[in-house]
Amino acid sequence: MAPTNSSDTPEIVHAKSHPIVRINSKRLEHSPYVDKYANEQTIFAIYAKRLYPVSLGEDVIEHYWKLRRDVMLYDTPEKPIDIQGPDAVALLERVFTRRIDDLKTWRARYAIACTPQGGIIMDGVLIRLAEDHFWYVEANGEFESWLMAYADGLDVTVSDPKSRVLQIQGPRALDVLADATNGQVPDNFAYFHAGMFELGGQEVLVSRTGWTGEMGVEIYGNRNLDHSALWDHIIESGKAHGMAFGTGGSMGLRRVEAGILDYDTDIDSSMTPYAAGLGDFVDLSKTEFVGREALFNADKNRRLFGLVTASGIPRVGSTVLDGDKKVGNMKVGDWSPTLEKGIGYVLFDQSGASQDSWLGQSLTLCDIEGEHHDCEIVSLPFYDADKKIPRGLEVAEI
Fold it and tell me: What is the pTM assigned to this prediction?
C-alpha cells in the first residue's frame, strides 16, 4: 500500500512503469512478519492473494550488492500447498509435465502444470516430505482448486498449511542457517535438498532453494508457529554475518539476471513450456498428463529470450524491432549492476525457424520513451548458466 494523502482521491505514484495506488487489504493476506519491518514508506504488491513488500524506501542497489556479496533476508509471498494421501503421487503425475514418482524424500524439484491446451497454468517447486506427502510451493495464481479438481476419484487431500516463506539469500546464507540451527545442517545439504530443522526451539521445513540465483535457503513456517519468535531468532543469527532485510526491489533485479521466470509476468497460460524455453521440464515419455497431447503436437521452438542493450533500459512496454517491423515485446527489464547494461526478457511474436534462430541477432529496442537502442538477443540466464553460484561451487567475481 502506497503512502497516501488525506483527500478522498487515491494518490497515484509511478514506480518505473508500474503505477502505485492505495488499496484496501480486505481479502488479501498480510504476512505474519509485517510488523517487524513495515514503515511509512512501505509499498506492498499482491502475489498469490498475499501482500508482500516491494519497497521500504531503501537503496535497492545497496541491497543488491549486499545480496551478491554478503546475505539478505526476504519476506516472500510464495504459497505452499500440502498434498498427501495414498494417491498423492498419482495426482501429481496427472497434473505435472515431468515425472514425480522418482523424486526422493527430502528433495525438491521444479515442476510445471499445463492446461489441456498446453499453456502453462502454474510453475513452482515441489518438495517430497514422505512417500505420500508433498508440498508444492506455487507461484502467483490460484492452483489449490486446480489440484482439487484433478483429485476427483483419488484418495488424496489437498490443503493450505498456512505457511509463509522467508528467504535467506547470498554467499553467507548457509552460515546464517548454521548459526540459526545451532549446527544441525549436514555437510551434504545440497542444492534442491530439504529437511526439518529446529530454529530457536521451533521445527520448520527448510529447502536449499531461492529466487535470486545466489546461494540461499527458504524457511517455511506453518499455522502453529510463533512467527515473531522465529523472526527474532533469525535476525539474531544473522547479526554476526551482517544480514539485512530487503524487499522485492533487490530480489527482483537479481532474479532477472539469473534468468528466473515469474509466473503471470514473464510466462502465463498463453505460452507453452516450449515457447518459454522450459521444454526440458516436459517429459513426453509419460503416457498421460494434462496437456500432453497438445504439447506433443506443439511448436517446440522458443519465443522467450534474453535481451542486452548498452544504452537503454528495456522495461515493460518497450518493443523490439527488426528494421522497422515490430517483432517482440519486453516482459520484464532493468539495469544490471553486474553487467552494467540494460537486460530483460523479450517475447517474440512468432518463434524463429529453428530453436535458437533469434539468438545472437542484433535488433533495435524501442523503449517506453520512444528512444531507439541497439540490442542483442542472448540466451538465459545472463550469466552463471550452470548455476554454480547457488550450488556453492563457485563464487562469481564481483
Answer: 0.92
